[in-house]
Structures are given as structure tokens and as C-alpha cells.
Amino acid sequence: MNNEKVMPLGVILDDTKDEITKEIIKIQKKRGIPSYLLDFIVSGILADIRDLKSREYVAEMTKEEENGGYNAGLEKDT
Length: 78
Prior knowledge:
By secondary structure, the chain is mainly alpha-helical. It is built from two helices and no strands. The longest helix has 32 residues, at 35-66.
């Protein structure tokens, strides 16, 4: 039996958010970008990430459809 502890998802998400925030602030200071422009940049990045997420969902759904689809716990009509 594997006794490795898995880090809770909430901790992973919080750590990742903190890491990304620190990098964004570091870049903001390095380039002298005011916060109102940083807001515009981060909003654009968020839109790009949402697009990537949608593409991942489509790719996953296509893959599953090719493999017979998901079983949502419902019996298929025979």
C-alpha cells in the first residue's frame, strides 16, 4: 500500500496562486507597470487561460466520445 500523503487540492491551488501573484508583482515592479494597466494585462491572460480550458474540455470530450463516451451512472437504452 502506498503511504505517500497527497497534498490537498486547496493547498495546491493557494500555493500556485501565491506563486503566480508574486511573479506578476515582480514583473510589474521590474517594468514599472501601473496597476490599472496590470489589470488590463491580467484580464487578457485570464481570457487566454479560459480559452485554453475550453480547448482542453473539447479535446477531452472528443477523446471520450471516440472511446465510447462517459458513463454518468445511467444505463444505456438497449
